[in-house]
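Progress narrative, work stream C.
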Amino acid sequence: MAANDSTRSVTGTTPRIAVYARVSTLGQSTDSQLLDLRRYVSERQWHIFKEYCDNGISGTKDSRPALDELMDAARKRKFDVVLVWRFDRFARSTKHLILALEEFRNLGIDFVSYQENIDTSSPLGSAIFTIISAVAQLERDIIAERVKSGLRRAKENGKKLGRPRGTALDVEKIRGLRKKGWSLKQIAKALNTSKSSVARLLKAVP
């Protein structure tokens, strides 16, 4: 399966393609992904700017060396199109995908997913991107509403909201520890409170 051929360089010349491939374990290889993507580029007589490959790196990781390098090059406008084998080879979550696609759009860079047959420069690809964005926003709104609803129910049930207050500090204990030569930091750690709270208490109660 391949995406359509509507992607064109913003300059009107042959598009410069950034190819991205990833496998989760070192025992796997990106070769099969790259084979499909190279053929896809060749059939369209495009030009591969660079191939970025993350080997043995989970897609859930926030930082991936090759992907980080690709994003840095994108921000420097070094290529016109990002080509991936499949969405989940590129993005760790729907949110990550949407944020990346929005950044590419702002940079004037198109995004093509070979397996999903998606090209954001085409009318269909653009429409699907809009739908994905809307679904992601709906998901965020639902989560936010659940949180608000939970807080309302808790408040109606008489539950106190906000950070719970710590138990009253034992002034005499603090004084005793201080006389033993303990530092404010040591006292605060022992009583599970802040250094500033200990200092304020000692200052307020001579």
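Work stream C, second folded protein:
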Amino acid sequence: MAATSRLHKASSTSALEILDLRHFTSTELRPLLEEEARVWSRLLSWDYASSSEMILRYVDAKVLPGYAAVEGGRIRGYSFFVYEQNKGVIGDLFASAVLNGRSGVIEERLLAHVIETLQQSPGIHRVEAQLLIHDSDVVAGPFRSAGFERYRRLFMLLPLRRTESEPLVVETPAGIEMRRWSEQDFNGTAAVITAAYHAHVDAEINDQYRTTGGSLRFLNNIVRFPGCGIFDADSSFVAVNKSTRQIIGVILCSRVRSDVGHVTQVCVLPEYRSRKVGAALLASATAALRRHNFSALSLTVTEANTRAVGLYEHLGFHTQRVFDAFVWEG
């Protein structure tokens, strides 16, 4: 059935309907995504425009699985997901705030449909979700009912304006060299990520970290696609052992607004921890961002990773939001 007839049918009743997202067009979904973009800007200082345009292109191509909540002839909420081999990833969830407190009910109904679809999809043995703009516990109900594990995560922010904070000054450890990340570093970076997250809580949240192949897919996503902002090579660095030339640590950053950076990955090989390599990587990134007049740098970290949380707080990061990551293993 055409999308226009779906909306016309829904407009004849005030009842809320949950319909396949692929029945609709970018024109019909755009007003809701514009509202969502304002929320991302207010809560996270994040320009969601590039992500919205990517979503809308996939909607018009009829290749984005998900659901739309339709009421009174308008799309009031939506959620989409993607399939990655034997895993499903819930990419987004949003309901309009103009619904007089009913947005939570709509989001729960959307989630129930998405979770049921993924758990019943042939060959899917794992489902992951991280919903940054939802406060911790707000949308946990449908996940708990479906047997998901929950992990609290922190969204942290470091002001970079010179009137708000002092520049990070961290001496590079002896025998270590800092240089900008390049395309030739894909394989070396993937090896560092896999080693750094072995038996780590973040490998429970994102199973791509468990293998080199998965880490390469993760890197490809953050470097080549705008889901976590536009990759910023100028503020991305690797730490290299001067004698062996081995990459022993990495920090990758993106631009989520013209003047706001976001750390998409920072990690150090286990044998080089407690040597201030991570702090030196963050200092290199913030210095580059300051030179280009960025106002802030954000990152996310799992609350249970107390060592990393303590480092970020020591360097001047402050927790702005607490949100949840959810994982189901079938």
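The first strand starts at residue 17 and ends at 20. No further action is required on this item.
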